[in-house]
Each structure stands twice: as structure tokens, then as C-alpha cells.
Amino acid sequence: MRAWAVAGTILLCLIVLPALAVTLASGWVRLAGQIILSVILAVIFAILAFFSYVCVRAQARKWGAALIIASVIVLFLIYTIWAGLPF
């Protein structure tokens, strides 16, 4: 149980702190937040794309399509981080 709490705290810090840096800070802090969030989202995109490929190959087309849509959403999030579009 304690390991899950530690993992959750680390994940929270990896997502929340860069997101706060992107929205509230400027300069080098904002750039660092953008880079960290982009790397995390790129890893998530790669995992989603791989599993969507596996689902399509296994003929689970609905799951594959849902994961492809999720991958496109992650790509859009990466674009909005760098373009500075507000949410």
C-alpha cells in the first residue's frame, strides 16, 4: 500500500508541477515545464500507439480505434503546450 502512495505522489509531481510551471511561470521555468510535459506526453503517446496497433492486429477494432483517438488527443495536448493555446 505504501508503494502505491509513493508512486502516486511521484506521478502527481511529474504531472502537476510542470503543468503549474507552464501555466503560471515564464522564462526558463516555463520552458522546463514544457519540455518535461512533452516528454511525459510523448511516452504516453508511444504506449497508446503501440497498444492500438496490438488491438488492431488482434482484431479488437473498437479498442484500437479508441486508443487511436486517445493518441490524437495526446498529440493535440503536446501542440497546445508549445503553441500556448489556453484551455
Topology of this structure?
Blueprint: H1 2-24, H2 28-57, H3 61-83
Helix pairs in contact: 1-2, 2-3
Structure description:
The chain is mainly alpha-helical. It has one domain (2-83). It contains three helices and no strands. It has helices at residues 2-24, 28-57, 61-83. Helix 1 (2-24) crosses helix 2 and helix 2 (28-57) runs antiparallel to helix 3 (61-83). The chain is flat and about 45 Å long. The termini are far apart. The model has no long low-confidence stretch (mean pLDDT 88).
Q: Give the percentage of residues in beta strands.
A: under 5%
The tally of structural domains comes to: 1
Order of helices and strands: HHH
Instruction: Describe the sheet with the most strands.
Output: none
Q: Average pLDDT across residues?
A: 88
Overall geometry comes to flat
Number of DSSP strands? 0
Radius of gyration over all CA atoms, rounded:
16 Å
Distance between the termini: 35 Å
- By oligomeric state, this entry counts as single chain
What percent of residues adopt helix (DSSP H or I)? Answer: over 70%
Low-confidence stretches: none
> Helix count?
3
Q: What structural class is derived from the secondary structure elements?
A: mainly alpha
Quick description:
The chain is an all-alpha fold.
What brief labels describe this structure?
87 residues, flat, 3 helices, mainly alpha
